[in-house]
Amino acid sequence: MINMANKLSSFNYFPKVINENEKGQFVFNTLSRNLVFIPEDIDINKLTKECAKADQKTIDFLRSKGMVIDSEEDELELLKSAILCKQFYQGRLFLTIIPTDACNFNCIYCYQNHKCNFMKEEIAARILKWLDKNLRFYSELSINWFGGEPLLCKSSMVRMMKCVKDLCVKHKVAMVSSVTTNGYELDIASFKSLVSNGLLYYQITVDGNRLTHNQQRPHKTQKDSYGVIIDNLKRIKQLPNRYRFEVGIRINVSGNMRRQDIYEFIDEMAQMFANDKRFVLIWQWVRNWGGSRMSAENAEILVKEGEYCLEFADRATKKGLYCADLISAASGTDVCEAFYRNGYVINFDGKIFKCAMRMDDELNNCIGELTESGSMHINEKAEGRWLRQDEIGLRCRSCVFLPMCLSNRCHYRSKILGEVKCIEYRDFIDKQIETMIKKKKYNAAGAWI
Predict the structure, then answer these.
(1) What CA–CA distance (Å, rounded) separates 388 from 417?
(2) Measuring CA to CA, which residue among 361, 329, 339, 334 is closest to residue 411?
(3) How many helices (H) and strands (E) does the chain have?
(4) pLDDT by residue (tens digit) across 291-337?
(5) What are phi and psi of 417, to 5 degrees?
(6) Which of 308, 418, 435, 436 has its CA at a distance of 20 to 30 angstroms from the CA of residue 426?
(7) How many Å apart are CA 190 and CA 151, to the nearest integer?
């Protein structure tokens, strides 16, 4: 007897994409992040209403993908539970370390007010003590280096990474490590040292060709930051395959850039990195990230429509370059450390923050500090503001993208400022689904027949 108590998930999204090989439609569930192809002989809209005519295997299959649920299920409560489970997951520790707020660049869109503070050895020792005491409670450590420009402290980074790697081995904890850097100080010797000590993921910004990059990201004392960064990347490229790493080359597309210049930049990147999976382009567009530099005087560099980047990502892919997804629709990795209970930002002075992007707001962002004994003293009231659940308004409850929005949104804006903004990347979801289809990252209903 077929179970009649089923209904379609309200988080089923029907993208405007076409399967060239078969007739039917794709369905993407924004809560489970599953993509399914429904052949034309299965009418998903009638499936749960006419269950007696439906194959039980099809119903069970769609239930396993989150696209069909019990008719009495409160899906909003399911979503809240899923968010809580993700937010308070105890298996992974998310740690961002800011060794300095100093920077050797003077980028025109930078939101930070760079000073000249550096982490002392005493603070580094506190971090290592704390990790030694607490790593045993986790199965994985995700450690990210941020700044300022973190590679202004690259000797300290190498020493700390070696110690952190040893601690992870001691406590049998897996480690994933990354750094966000302008790449100017990433000489080949430093790169080898960092990679050998477990720092495998790098994000380096190169804003187009030599002219546009040096205009948008000028070095404070040198004229050609582009040339130094590209030389560093070329040397990294020459390393043998036994060096495991990934370099994300981020391009901040601004309103000042000409299409032709970006096309030429793509051609240059293709000559160097085509068909090398270790190098991935990350396309972004310049928005108002805050700070005093983004004023009416340079508003022309802003790009209002992110879809502007889709054209360049397509062109780069056709040239043999690998491009990061503009939205992590399938992986669910579109979450910052501020979202997680076990997510901390440790500043150069040992103070603990939640958001690495708003270090200027110590009143709302700072939740504690590391003590000399290697303990983390947390102000529970300050931390609680970051861990409270966002209220879901009536308009949001009916939005198919709500599951992605709740985790993807800026948690400083929503939890501290009380502002709710629609998911920024919603216009890219169809494009990401097309990529999933090309990579065969979907299941087909009825494939067992």
Answers:
(1) 13
(2) 339
(3) 16, 17
(4) 666 665 565 666 666 677 888 998 999 999 999 876 665 555 567 88
(5) -90, -15
(6) 418
(7) 9
